Amino acid sequence: MRWYFHKLAMMFGAAPRKPGPREETDAARDMKRLQKTPDEAKKRKALILHEMEYPLVSNKWKYARWISIIVINLMFVVSFSWDVQLVEGAMTASRFLGFHMADPTGALQVMLAFKQVMLNLVIGTVTVILIWWFFGGRAFCSWACPYHLLAEWAEAIHLFLARRGWVRDQVFHRSLRVVLWFIFMGLALASGYTVFEYINPVGIVSRALIYGPTLALLWVLFLLSIEVFFSRRFWCRYICPMGLTYGVIGTAAPVQIRYDLSKCVHEGECREVCLVPHVLEVTKMGYASDTEEFIASDCTRCGLCVDACPQGALSYTIRGLDKVI
């Protein structure tokens, strides 16, 4: 239980660490000893060298996510442009086939700003919470958020420039977004305005796609330029309160990313591609508390680590059914 709470604490800024003696199972301890034997170490090094010489590149889950983001956001565009009334509103607040949908962070700000509980917002929030609780972690971010797709492309440019030594990634403490979450909620309560929504790139991009571009897109371009030239995934990693809220919602979800210690060669390719690499510290030698673990709730469920691992040590699974997706 202590190890579970540590994983939850990582979402609020706690540093990853190795499990203590009481947090580690006997099976994990035995497997770690086995992996450190000379024969196993030799096999592991041979596998890593083979992977480096003959890399296996998979983009299965990346392209699946891109399709998901495009289709979800196209539903808003088509519904408005052709008056289909399939989806009304924008990504932060909408109605789908008449059912209210509301982003939990935005809905809380509205109720704090107006200082009253609104039934439609409560219904919409509960609906969204149930959906994203099932998929777990910050799945909304990587499977539905329109800004996430733009930020992913900006990250690719950043990495291209970084490989040539032209830019460096400036790292901030992850607890910054926790502080900002409370600041934005406090501003809504004190001012009577949903201050965050004025700078929220998720809502800005969504409304621009549906209703047409506005000057607010200059703010989005500014954020993307920061992510290209200054700090990799700056908004999603350190600022966005929506991601923090969804992470809390998806803490104990049915859909999980499962880590299998017996298949891992600890080469670290998964951490290199991860948006939130602290959740994959468990893949480092000695960091797993059991032979099988579920990745921490700050995980975006993007599947990049699953694509990157040729050994199959990471996989999507439905918790309780022991079913690999």
Task: Give a concise summary.
The chain has 325 residues and is α+β, with helices and mostly antiparallel strands. It is 55% helix and 9% strand.
Structural description of this entry:
The protein has 325 residues and is α+β, with helices and mostly antiparallel strands. The chain has 16 helices and seven strands. It has a four-stranded antiparallel beta sheet, with no helix packed on it. A three-stranded antiparallel beta sheet has the order 1-2-3. Strand 2 and strand 3 form a beta hairpin. The longest helix has 22 residues, at 60-81. It starts with a helix and ends with a strand.
- The class by helix and strand makeup works out as alpha+beta
Percentage of residues assigned to helices = 55-70%
- Strand count, sense and closure of the main sheet? 4 strands, antiparallel
> Number of DSSP strands?
7
Q: What oligomeric assembly is this protein in?
A: single chain
- Helical run tally: 16
Query: How much beta, percentage-wise?
Result: 5-15%
The main sheet orders its strands as: 5-4-6-7
Shape: globular
- Separation, N- and C-terminal Cα atoms: 27 Å
Overall mean confidence score, pLDDT: 89
Low-confidence stretches: none
Annotation keywords:
single chain, 325 residues, alpha+beta, four-stranded antiparallel beta sheet, 16 helices
Secondary structure blueprint with pairings:
Elements: H1 2-11, H2 26-35, H3 38-53, H4 60-81, E1 87-90, E2 93-96, E3 99-102, H5 104-114, H6 119-135, H7 139-143, H8 146-163, H9 176-191, H10 195-199, H11 201-211, H12 217-229, H13 234-239, H14 241-249, E4 255-260, H15 269-273, E5 292-294, H16 304-308, E6 314-318, E7 323-324
Antiparallel strand pairs: 1-2, 2-3, 4-5, 4-6, 6-7
Helix pairs in contact: 4-11, 5-9, 8-12, 11-12
